[in-house]
Amino acid sequence: MYRTNTCGELNLAHCGHEVTLAGWVQRVRDLGAMTFIDLRDRYGITQLVTDEHTPEHVKEAVNHLGREFVIQAKGIVRERASKNKNISTGDIEIEISSIRVLSKSEVPPFTIQNDTDGGDDLRMKYRYLDLRRPMVQQNLFLRANMAHVTRTYLSEQGFIETETPVLIKSTPEGARDFVVPSRMNPGEFYALPQSPQIFKQLLMVAGFDKYFQIVKCFRDEDLRADRQPEFTQIDCEMSFVEQEDVLNTFEGLTRHLLREIKGVEVDVFPRMPWSVAMEKYGSDKPDIRFDMFLHEMTDRLKGKGFQVFESAPYIGGICVSGVAEYTRKQLDELTEWVKRPQIGSKGLVYIKLNNDGSIRSSVDKFYNEEDLKGIAGLMGAKQGDLILILSGEREHTQNALGLLRVEMANRLGLRPKDVFKPLWVVDFPLLEWNEETQRYFAMHHPFTSPKPEDIALLDSDPGKVRANAYDLVINGVEIGGGSVRIFDSQLQATMFRILGFTPAQAEAQFGFLMNAFRYGAPPHAGIAFGFDRLVSMFAGLDSIRDVIAFPKNNSGRDVMNDSPSPISDDQLEELNLIINLPSEK
Amino acid sequence: MYRTNTCGELNLAHCGHEVTLAGWVQRVRDLGAMTFIDLRDRYGITQLVTDEHTPEHVKEAVNHLGREFVIQAKGIVRERASKNKNISTGDIEIEISSIRVLSKSEVPPFTIQNDTDGGDDLRMKYRYLDLRRPMVQQNLFLRANMAHVTRTYLSEQGFIETETPVLIKSTPEGARDFVVPSRMNPGEFYALPQSPQIFKQLLMVAGFDKYFQIVKCFRDEDLRADRQPEFTQIDCEMSFVEQEDVLNTFEGLTRHLLREIKGVEVDVFPRMPWSVAMEKYGSDKPDIRFDMFLHEMTDRLKGKGFQVFESAPYIGGICVSGVAEYTRKQLDELTEWVKRPQIGSKGLVYIKLNNDGSIRSSVDKFYNEEDLKGIAGLMGAKQGDLILILSGEREHTQNALGLLRVEMANRLGLRPKDVFKPLWVVDFPLLEWNEETQRYFAMHHPFTSPKPEDIALLDSDPGKVRANAYDLVINGVEIGGGSVRIFDSQLQATMFRILGFTPAQAEAQFGFLMNAFRYGAPPHAGIAFGFDRLVSMFAGLDSIRDVIAFPKNNSGRDVMNDSPSPISDDQLEELNLIINLPSEK
Fold this sequence. Notes:
The structure is a homodimer. Chain A is an alpha+beta fold. Chain A folds into three domains: 12-103, CATH 2.40.50.140; 137-272 and 423-547, Bira Bifunctional Protein, Domain 2 (BirA Bifunctional Protein, domain 2); 290-415, Gyrase A, domain 2 (2-Layer Sandwich), CATH 3.30.1360. Chain A has 17 helices and 24 strands. In chain A, the strands form five sheets. Chain A has an eight-stranded mixed beta sheet, sandwiched between helices. The mean pLDDT of chain A is 94.
């Protein structure tokens, strides 16, 4: 062992002890008679000091230290003259008697501290140095801790962590599968799992009863800011349960994590039907830390000659408190904001309830003061409030209003990162109509069971059928989701028919699981949490990248080691592959 | 919830309670007046019973039950007339009042019980049914438990579990890498990690201090009986430590697992130099549950005119107790055994110390009774013992004797599966000479550090240099291994030179890690345990396949879902790949 203690543990109780520390040189301050060295390791920072009593060769060695040198130093712990209350070792320092440079360092490309001078790209290229910064380390330690607390909790609840294969079968519907050529099986490929869905259902057929796994999953899709080609899930499945059993179990896990990790107690998670979430929040992942509900006024605003509204299937608005004083410029800017392609509205109507009691709108031509006051009353608006109204196709406009609602809340500081408001969104539609292909798709996956009371609608009005599917949402972020699975082969056959599969197609794509179901499948249901997202929320971060030790960029590249990269001709030949780049085609 | 209790928890204390159970029908016994149903779930088996008081429709339903049907049954717990002491619920039975078939089953292809009638292939094809057998489930539950105990232990020791990437850089030396074509980076590939070696060393450079991970690794090699293309490691690395620190930490883990999981206390693990292991046991992974040491007699047996021995660089033997009565046929069979290619000896010489006091050998022509008695004395052989002697090139013959030693111990029952004898094999050679390429190779990897006292030999006699490398061996099985790493760039440069790398080649293959080392690398060392093997040893099994939920066969195929498999032309085109099978070349 190169040390007797870490750089985070010494205090006044150790005064007079001879200790040996090892770590990185954070900073050297030469004050002439005395020199101070801040020595850093994972556990903290300890001040080393040389003065007139220090042997010359030690002073000489200290003179040649640079930032990020790795050293070992021996000395006596003594009380500091001027204490530093910001660090755990701030009461003491080490009067060093010997020093040894274990490893030199070139000048690092950015400073190794929380408020570093390195930009994103540089820090990603030198990720091993970025990971030295205490706040980055803390994110990773939080992640490790959350994984361990999760495992302990689920194990104590009788869940069995079971590893499922990473090299799995590639299936015809496997768009966005990463594939792995097999050398031993020429011309054939494995796929990397987008989730262990099939395997966890097989484990239920196998009688494992309660399964979980914290597991890497893979998706070869065009990456958005907050997606990674490999990501981690808390993946679970249970047998002989109904929807409420799953919700209660994973509400328990979430509550336990909030208590153990964040010291936060939360109320019973509300169960909100998807239709209510859309109507009141304009989102299937509502942020319920603040109200600012959507109000529909489709009927109310028609018949006054405003053509935009007259032709709109849906008109709705939100009431934003205390911003009636928004200037024309601010309102124009907000109008531009809702017109962005991500929001996709055609325009924005506003009503200002000025502090002087007057009321003004952008549609004064069509609505008189009485009309406007009526709307304000409907929405519970008061002096100083600003009402923002969008119109258009129902679901699209609700979504736009939902995004506007969150944007206004951000501006008003209504989304504090240290407040956690989880809820369950339930009763999702089972099917989604696709205009392009003129058929229904499963909103979750084809094994998601319809609500029993809606099964009768499967043939008559499939779009109205609700699923036994649920999402856990915290602070407007979808943390996880799952469903009760179909385990009845006749109901499954009906589902396939409605989804437009011929029996042969269903057999080709799902035959493997259907075969297993022929030997006694228990009722089962499951859920998966996005672990990266959960950790980043607990860390108060906006991106999952900051809670991944070695993340990839938006092109799926690891800029630190410059991968992916070409492979040798020998390797290609062994794999029976030829590369055919677009330009060569 | 479909049940009030599991099939493993009811006992006399529950008598009179109304309960609902759910599970699989293990067996139906119709005794006329009464019918007994054994209902099985993960937790056990509970007996359900119908008799003259049972409603007719329930009796009727019971008549149609088959093996592996999934049912839900309600009834009253009552004391059994004839108790079954072999199961936890054997004191009670459930007098059922209602029954519901949740899911029917076709007749399963083999019986779902520990002593099944299904062969290996059939059980692998229907792995989800094989996994219903209690002993197979127990293996997987043991695995989950060992993983959890390991995680808890290492976390408590300050290790941080950190996930490293699965999609990594393919390197030129990456023979046996599985590769993954990148759609977003045409013509480029990721590799799947054979181990997280580089990343864990980077985490040390990043100051993580103590890292661990239970992690999937991948190797595309021709599979032997006990290898899998994907396997699991307990992977660790520590900073500011020396070899003994690593050994003590992981001796602590191993001891903890043996205590917690097996209830076994073991002594301090011996540290055995590699050279001693080879001399005494003929193996770098000696089974020390029994002695039967190798004895060298190269000098002693020469000069008597036996040409085989005269020309042999090494002659050695083992003394096998109590088998002097082996017949000629048995000895011939043993001779054939040592001539098998896996052993590779040219022949076998034996000396029998018969129970009547006489002594006979297969080389009586060259050695008189006095010679033979001398050898017997040297080996501590006594009446009734059989001495077996092999000769040839030193290391090869030691290995052959080591294998013969284990074979004889197996025949004599000297390898009980419930006795655990761990040891550390240390001081491995740093380098291995390769005759074919006429150069040295790193025995572990090029970052393994030489023993400081041997560094002077690096240039003069590289083959003699010992490494700071170590293996944990239990009962003749290599459970794990690791090394102290080089963190000094000059020593590393020397190593590369001796391994025949030009600076440019070293840069191309390892530049990425070497770059990180330029910014202050701490002394560090690590280890990895083969988790599959560790679990199979704890389970008393010979194959790792039995402790993997969904294993692959010797061709790397999953016979359950018939993967790997072809992918579509669209997928190939998106990946810019053309398949070029051998027959088409």
